[in-house]
């Protein structure tokens, strides 16, 4: 087996081991980074929703105090504004279409906002102080594994305009939703949670795309390095060694007039060429002495 083939086999094994180890480490790292990025984006959505809630309670709701006596306007409800904002964000930005936002409430006015079992567990965990905010987690669903971020929702004084008692609530709101739910809230009480859910497959797909680009780039760089190394190895080692081998073969067959291999460098190849030249000269001298 030729030397260049042996070197390439050794390089192939080393590159395969290196790529395999890099792939194992980088895939896990990229997946964790993708999850962290998704969580950060979810937190940003929650903060945006909170900002809209505060703006609605402070600036929009007071402007509709008179109108709500005659016609219930959902625009004055902070939860409605937050949901509409994030709905528009999801529709306008493909990056956020997989993000599902909910304001899960234990005792909501609108039944659509009532917390289901797993959401109630999160809200109660916040109420009991069992978890810190924000809360990060994963859960299995019929549609696949989901990642979620949750923050507690606390009632403030603005909430009590509609959620103190049915008697004090706007009559138009009571007429729309009834008087059975959504009342009895207290200032500072955790009444629900903002929850953003994202399919785990969304995060993993982004990680997989990055992983493929990274590994493809790594393989390309290693192949380019291998080609350059092959060229250098052939030029610096294989070519002169082949010429020296040919010269040595000619001398061994008695061609004492074969020309010396000229090598000006002082590396190992140059030293081998010098040694071969001295050997040829010694052989010529010995043959001439025998002939004399």
Textual characterization of the structure:
The structure is a single chain. The chain is of the alpha+beta class and about 290 residues long. It contains 7 helices and 4 strands, in the order ααβαββααβαα. It has helices at about 5-60, 80-90, 115-125, 160-165, 170-175, 200-250, 270-290; strands at about 100-105, 135-140, 145-155, 190-200. The protein has a 4-stranded antiparallel sheet, sandwiched between helices. A hairpin with a 2-residue loop joins strand 2 (about 135-140) and strand 3 (about 145-155). The chain is rod-shaped, with a radius of gyration of 39 Å.
Q: What is the helix content? A: 55-70%
Characterize the biggest β-sheet: 4 strands, antiparallel
What's the CATH architecture name of the domain at 45-200?
A: 2-Layer Sandwich
The total strand number stands at: 4
Provide mean pLDDT, rounded. Answer: 86
Query: Structural class of the helix and strand makeup?
Result: alpha+beta
Measured distance between first and last alpha carbons:
44 Å
CATH class of the domain at 45-200: Alpha Beta
* Topology-level CATH name of the domain at 45-200: Beta-Lactamase
Task: Put the structure in a nutshell.
With 292 residues, the protein is of the alpha+beta class.
């Amino acid at each position: 087996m030729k030397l260049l083939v042996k070197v390439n086999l050794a390089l192939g094994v080393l590159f395969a081991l290196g790529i395999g180890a890099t792939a194992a480490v980088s895939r896990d790292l990229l997946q964790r980074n993708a999850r962290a990025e998704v969580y950060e984006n979810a937190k940003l959505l929650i903060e945006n929703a909170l900002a809209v809630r505060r703006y609605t309670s402070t600036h929009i709701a007071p402007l509709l105090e008179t109108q709500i006596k005659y016609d219930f306007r959902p625009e004055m409800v902070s939860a409605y504004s937050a949901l509409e904002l994030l709905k528009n964000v999801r529709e306008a930005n493909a990056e956020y279409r997989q993000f599902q936002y909910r304001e899960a409430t234990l005792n909501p006015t609108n039944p659509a906002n009532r917390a289901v079992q797993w959401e109630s567990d999160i809200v109660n965990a916040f109420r009991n102080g069992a978890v810190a905010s924000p809360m990060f987690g994963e859960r299995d669903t019929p549609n696949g594994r989901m990642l979620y971020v949750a923050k507690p929702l606390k009632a403030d004084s603005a909430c009590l305009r509609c959620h103190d008692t049915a008697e004090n609530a706007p009559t138009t709101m009571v007429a729309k939703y009834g008087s059975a739910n959504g009342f009895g809230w207290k200032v500072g009480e955790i009444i629900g949670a903002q929850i953003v859910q994202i399919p785990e497959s969304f995060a993993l797909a982004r990680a997989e795309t990055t992983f493929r680009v990274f590994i493809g780039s790594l393989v390309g760089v290693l192949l380019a390095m291998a080609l350059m190394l092959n060229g250098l190895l052939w030029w610096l080692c294989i070519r002169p060694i082949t010429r020296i081998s040919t010269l040595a073969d000619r001398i061994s067959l008695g061609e004492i007039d074969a020309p010396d291999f000229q090598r000006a460098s002082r590396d190992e190849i140059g030293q081998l060429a010098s040694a071969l030249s001295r050997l040829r000269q010694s052989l010529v001298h010995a043959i001439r002495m025998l002939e004399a």
